[in-house]
Specification:
Layout lengths: L1 E3 L2 E5 L6 E4 L1 H30 L22 H10 L13 E9 L5 E14 L6 E8 L2 E8 L5 E10 L21 E2 L3 H10 L1
Antiparallel strand pairs: 1-2, 2-3, 4-5, 4-8, 5-6, 6-7, 8-9
């Protein structure tokens, strides 16, 4: 140890590196070097573990968790499944149509029966396999509204009885009307046009 005006110099036997300064500075430098070596070891072990891991889903962005990019794209698979669920055996339904639905009701011992419902389509929402219709009917003076999935296998049948001329996408104003004021203007379709439409469908 050689002292020069309050500053001492020490020689490290391992690397031949000379650290100069006061004792407080020397302790701080040693602590910084130890933290750097620990961080280097942690980063190398984390990189090695990520190389052996098989990425599948995208992890959330965070400071301690890296982002893993998914290899498989699920959007085409979901679109293919939705396309298989579309039904082509049912007629096209529009707002204001009076329809008759057949719902398959499961009973005991594996028996099923068809329950008939009739009402006016007052709303339609969704697209593709998620298309739903809202059917309103008046039963014993009480208005009842039911939502149905058009492409659901529970829907046994759908028949359009009458078509109406409407200028709205939602016929919610029928909730406040009763009697003749709740009736819609019927739209008559010629037989030849109806036959051509059925043949094109």
């Amino acid at each position: 140890k050689l002292f020069f005006k309050g500053v001492f110099s020490v020689s490290l036997a391992g690397g031949g590196r000379v650290v100069q300064g006061t004792p407080q500075q020397q302790q701080q430098q040693a602590h910084t070097a130890m933290l750097a070596s620990q961080n280097k070891l942690l980063s190398s072990s984390r990189t090695a573990s990520l190389q052996h891991r098989q990425p599948f889903v995208t992890a959330g962005r965070s400071r301690c968790q890296p982002t893993i990019v998914a290899k498989a794209k699920l959007a085409p698979l979901v679109d293919a499944l939705k396309a298989d669920q579309l039904r082509t055996d049912l007629p096209k339904v529009s707002i204001g149509d009076t329809v008759r639905l057949g719902l398959l009701v499961q009973e005991g011992k594996g028996k099923t029966r068809t329950q008939r419902l009739e009402g006016v389509v007052i709303a339609q929402s969704g697209s593709g396999s998620n298309t739903t219709i809202t059917v309103r009917r008046v039963f014993q003076g009480v208005g009842v509204e039911m939502n149905f999935f058009v492409n659901s296998p529970v829907l046994g049948g759908l028949e359009v009885l009458r078509r109406a001329k409407v200028r709205r996408a939602k016929l919610y104003y029928l909730r406040d009307r009763t009697g003749k004021s709740a009736r819609l203007k019927e739209l008559f379709v010629k037989k030849d046009k109806a036959a051509a439409t059925a043949a094109a469908a």
